[in-house]
Automatic annotation (TrEMBL):
It comes from the Bacteria. This is Glycerophosphodiester phosphodiesterase family protein. Gene3D superfamilies: Phosphatidylinositol (PI) phosphodiesterase (3.20.20.190). Residues 59-292 form the GP-PDE domain. The lineage of its organism: Bacteria, Pseudomonadati, Pseudomonadota, Alphaproteobacteria, Maricaulales. It comes from Hyphobacterium vulgare. Pfam families: GDPD. InterPro entries: GP_PDE_dom, PLC-like_Pdiesterase_TIM-brl.
Length: 304
């Protein structure tokens, strides 16, 4: 039987209570502008944020692997905190299972590149894993330890940033249920590379956000997956504005990444905004938010 580590669950529940949450975990709120006598359309925070980005014509930033930098290892709490302070809307994090089934933040199957440890994540127990220290992109040891998913959720709620979950070897339905269990289904996105993964996540938790790998609006509509709180992932490079318009016609936002362009050091972030992309995954959070603006500048009402 698989057990999940929950070292931050109590802290998260207290944070939810302090924010006025009712503990239901559905993450839905009435849509802005609903009349007092009419049935309100309930939307999650992620759905409202994506709609805001499309309507306002802005591009939101997703910090790849949390947004690492000097002294900030990838997939660390320090990186997530920094991404939130820099104005990113999302922190994209990678999930892996330890030997006993605890879910932690880790991109690689092995520990050598990003920690002071050796071996594989799957063969290491959480207690042993936490004795190692994370290293930053320059290979420098830091005081950061490998965080659990629960700790990332607690920090994200406190810092005011949404999590985008890259599942690796974690089942989409498991990640969706954990987000729901800690009251953050409405503040989370599951990265679904296939329609089957997206459907599994939504079958487990109907309101969970999705980043779905689909490049054609008709294909998306044919899946039958609800489009609220979902954006179409178009991959790397700047997509055509015409394709974004076709998705906009069915009320769907688009996402892409700028990694290859950032490697050249000559990234024109405004090109993605001109193409209509609503979510841009980047490595350089400071440069991207400097060019495209912080999320609270664009859509502050989502965080009120």
């Amino acid at each position: 039987m698989t057990h999940f580590a929950r070292p931050a669950a109590i802290t998260l529940c207290l944070l939810l209570a302090a924010c006025g949450g009712d503990g239901s975990g559905d993450g839905t709120q009435p849509a802005a502008g609903a009349s007092a006598g009419a049935p309100a359309r309930n939307q999650t925070e992620v759905a409202r944020l994506l709609d805001c980005a499309r309507v306002e014509g802005v591009t939101l930033i997703s910090a790849h692997r949390g947004g690492p930098g000097p002294g900030r290892p990838e997939n660390s709490l320090a990186a997530i905190r920094h991404a939130a302070q820099a104005g990113a809307a999302f922190a994209e994090i990678d999930l892996a299972r330890t030997a006993e089934g605890a879910i932690v933040l880790m991109h690689d199957d092995t520990l050598e590149r990003t920690t002071t440890g050796t071996g594989t994540v799957a063969d290491t127990y959480l207690g042993d894993l936490r004795r190692y220290r994370l290293v930053d992109p320059d290979g420098n040891e830091t005081g950061e330890i490998v965080p659990t998913l629960d700790e990332a959720f607690a920090l994200a709620l406190e810092a005011g940033i949404f999590l985008q979950l890259d599942l690796k070897d974690v089942a989409p339905e498991d990640a969706a249920r954990i987000a729901s269990d800690v009251g953050q289904a409405g503040r989370s996105l599951i990265i679904a590379y296939t329609v089957e993964d997206g459907r599994a996540a939504r079958n487990a938790v109907a309101g969970i956000g999705l980043s779905l790998g689909v490049e054609d609006p008709a294909t998306l509509e044919a899946t039958g997956i609800g489009t609220d709180g979902l954006f179409a992932w178009l991959g790397g490079g700047v997509p055509s504005a015409a394709l974004d318009d076709r998705f906009a016609d069915i009320g769907v936002e688009t996402g892409a990444h700028a990694f290859r362009e950032e490697e050249t050091g000559q990234t024109d972030y405004a090109a993605w905004r001109a193409a209509g992309v609503e979510v841009l995954a980047v490595d350089d959070v400071i440069a991207a938010t400097g060019a495209l603006g912080a999320v609270r500048t664009h859509c502050p009402e989502i965080f009120e």
